[in-house]
Design brief:
This protein is an alpha/beta fold and 294 residues long. The protein has helices at 14-23, 52-56, 69-77, 100-113, 126-130, 142-152, 167-195, 200-209, 215-226, 236-252, 258-272, 280-292; strands at residues 4-8, 27-31, 46-48, 61-64, 91-94, 116-119, 122-123, 134-138, 156-161. The strands form two sheets. Strands 3-2-1-4-5-6 form a six-stranded parallel β-sheet, sandwiched between helices. Strands 7-8-9 form a three-stranded mixed β-sheet. The protein is globular.
């Protein structure tokens, strides 16, 4: 393909996503703060870049997979940021979990610079990213959606349009809150079963195949029931960041969300105990077990 794509952010999710774009025939101009991570992409049509600006230089599309709002803003607006080199009419696709406020700020900055911004956060763990099984939520103008579509189709099993602005970011925050709340509920239920002398894995298998027959309860339920905390797919410290985003949005919209406080405190406790780099399954599941003395 002729399209050059700038790709910034090779974490647990970004690396398999970049590999899928390489497999699809795109030429990637890649930047990552730890430059050695680029070597993990293997052989392919890759240009290694030493800045975000270099990754955007001459690219029709730039994809960022950066989980921190401040890092993303610096990546776009900073001295060596995307906007320094992104061509007029080009598109920035932001695919991580960020606040709607940050998304709107970046959208406005791109518009002023003559480029376009698309919110496109994804649902799925690294194994889903590798298998092109992500769910992609998008919001923005139609030009951006049309330009992004053939690229996004190489990354996920479905693209769902939520309209304009930062709506997709709201959906992502709401969804991550629901996952956290479900994990807390499962951890408490399965620990209750264990302390009552019932096999927690059998309980998880029963509920995952009957009353709660859905991927979250099947996949996360199995990990929580088995107390299986590796490999790390999504870090507890990132879960805490997302809980903070949900709490902030609840305050801005005057939406009472008492369960947000529960999951926020659970993940805050995990980080305080030094578990920030562990999977959020451990942050929640191990936390519940320790509280219960098992």
């Amino acid at each position: 393909m002729d399209t050059k794509i700038g790709f910034i952010g090779l974490g647990h999710m970004g690396t398999p996503m970049a590999k899928n774009l390489l497999d699809a025939g795109y030429h990637l101009q890649v930047y990552n703060r730890t430059l050695s991570k680029i070597d993990e992409l293997g052989e392919g049509a890759i240009t290694k870049c030493n800045s975000s600006a270099a990754a955007a230089d001459g690219a029709l599309i730039v994809i960022t997979m950066l989980s921190d709002d401040e890092v993303l803003k610096e990546t776009v607006l900073g001295e060596n940021g995307i906007l320094k080199k992104l061509p007029k009419g080009a598109l920035h696709i932001s695919m991580s979990t960020i606040s709607p406020d940050t998304a709107q700020l970046l959208s406005d900055a791109h518009k002023a610079a003559g480029s376009t911004y698309l919110a496109a956060p994804v649902f799925g763990r690294p194994e889903a990213a590798a298998a092109k099984k992500l769910w992609v939520c998008v919001s923005g103008d139609q030009y951006a959606k049309d330009l992004a579509k053939p690229v996004l189709e190489n990354l996920g099993q479905g693209i769902v349009d939520f309209g304009d602005g930062a709506a997709a970011n709201v959906v992502k925050i709401a969804g991550n809150f629901m996952i956290m709340a479900s994990m807390e509920m499962m951890a408490e239920a399965y620990t209750l079963a264990e302390k009552s002398g019932v096999d927690r894995l059998k309980v998880a298998e029963f509920f995952g195949s009957t009353l709660f027959n859905a991927p979250i309860f099947q996949n996360y339920g199995r990990l929580i029931a088995n107390k299986q905390y590796e490999p790390v797919g999504f870090k507890s410290k990132l879960g805490l960041k997302d809980a903070r985003l949900a709490f902030k949005l609840s305050q801005q919209t005057e939406t009472p969300m008492p369960v947000v406080n529960t999951v926020h405190n659970r993940l805050l406790s995990a980080v305080a105990k030094g578990w920030g780099e562990t999977d959020w399954v451990e942050g929640v599941g191990r936390g519940v077990c320790e509280d219960a003395g098992v």
